[in-house]
Amino acid sequence: MKQKIAANYLYSSVTISPSIPAVNQEVQIMYNGILLQNGASEVYAHVGFGSNWKSTADYKMNRTPRGFEVSIPITNHTDRLNVCFKDSANNWDNNSGSNYSFPVKRHSVEYSLDYETEVCI
Q1: What is the pLDDT of residue 88?
Q2: φ, ψ dihedrals at 17, nearest 5°
C-alpha cells in the first residue's frame, strides 16, 4: 500500500511520508530545497517536537536521486513535528523563519483487563 505524501511544503521542496505521522511511527522527510539547489553536498534535518521544539536532534540526510532523505522516529508524545535544514557550511533553510511544521497524530492506548491486548484509538 502506498502512503500519501504531504503537500504542505511542496512549493518549498519539503515533503514527509506519511503525510500525518503518528507517535511511535517512523516518518520519512524528503528535502530538495534551496540548500541542495545551491550545491550542498551534505544536509542535516534539525528536528524538534511541539511548540517549544522539545527533544531537538540533528539527523544526517542521505543523498538520493530525489534530493536528501532521512527517516526518523516520532517518539515524543506531541502534536507537532518541526524541522529545518542546514548544510555542512552551516547555511540554514528555515522556511524564511517559519520553519517547517507538520501535525502528528496522538494515539491513546487502552489495555484489556487481562493486559494482553492493546487497542489503539
Answers
A1: 95
A2: -145, 125
